[in-house]
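User: Sequence in, structure out. Go.
Assistant: Echoing your sequence, followed by the structure tokens.
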Amino acid sequence: MKMMNMQATGLSTSGWDRPFGLGMWVIAYRVKRYLPMLLSALWLGSCSAQSAPSPRKIALQQQWTLNPGDEIAGSAVTGSLGDVSLHISGKQVRAPFEGEVELSELDGCTLYSSPDIPAYLFRFCGLRQVRYGDIKAGKPIGKGDYLSFATLRRQPDGTWIIVEPARDVLEKALSGA
């Protein structure tokens, strides 16, 4: 009888309609327990978008009509005068020396430099799954089916010229030795 009178007056003993009844305490406990994990997941997810490298722009002294990244009848040019193109069948390309891997301004190309040979820059086009940043000798830079390789030498005026590719550097990059 007493229960009916409480319901008739709009009062309840369940705790849900009191400000901070038992149900609200359970919700507050769960939020407090899982909030740090949720915030950590959001923070980690936002970090991955910030790690994309910016492309390095280089000024080439020589210019040709066709360059890597150009398109002819719907097909991408992957090599041009001065590049060596190789069919590498999914093989990994490795860092021949300790150095740095950078994104090139040319689509599908990567630049590799080493303090061991500071006047030279190597351009690898056609690689996928590229690892950018500092790299140790022998570690994978990326892999691909075809590789267009160019050796560039810095000129006194700061521009770069394409020179004959160094066979031993290319052998080290492909053999991992």
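User: And one key feature?
Assistant: The longest strand covers residues 146-154.
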